[in-house]
Amino acid sequence: MEPADGALVVPSDHGAGGGAPPTVASAPAARLAPMSDVVEDTAPRAHARIVYLGPVSPHWEVYGDWGERQVLDEFRARALARLVLLPRDDPQFRRNKERVNRDAERELISLEWELGLPDDDDAEE
């Protein structure tokens, strides 16, 4: 139960059998800021290209164009673990591609997909 003025309702400490009505406490001075959908646009730490090599395994290669070598090597290992045995037409590929995209987003790595399609509209970020 929360009153319209933003005050918090705190139950009274008058014993278990009490039945005293709850009391209203004033809101704390430092309130949390409301959540927002706005994402701060920060500069990427690295850039990677993921290239489809063809229908014969290994299907994928990850190239780091610029950025910290260690960050790119760790990302490459995670991305290849998700993609290495999947051709681009496999139904699991779409799910794993999204997971790789989220991983790159978390690590602030700009990502480019080269899927080898004639109308390479699937290049993202």
What are the low-pLDDT stretches, counting only 5+ consecutive residues below 50? none
Instruction: Report helical residue fraction.
Output: 10-25%
DSSP strand (E) fraction?
15-25%
In spatial order, strands of the major sheet run 4-3-5
How many separate helices?
2
Largest sheet: 3 strands, mixed
Please outline what is shown here:
25% of the residues lie in helices and 22% in strands. It is an alpha+beta fold. The strands form two sheets. A three-stranded mixed beta sheet has the order 4-3-5, with helices on one face.
Describe the fold and architecture.
The longest helix is centred in the C-terminal third of the chain and has 16 residues, at 91-106. Strands 4-3-5 form a three-stranded mixed β-sheet, with helices on one face. A two-stranded antiparallel sheet has the order 1-2. It is extended, with a radius of gyration of 25 Å. 25% of the residues lie in helices and 22% in strands. The protein folds into two domains: 1-29, no CATH class; 46-114, no CATH class. The mean pLDDT is 75. The protein has two helices and five strands. Helix 1 packs antiparallel against helix 2 (91-106). The two termini are 45 Å apart. The protein has helices spanning 69-83, 91-106, and strands at 8-10, 23-25, 46-52, 60-67, 109-114. It is an alpha+beta fold.
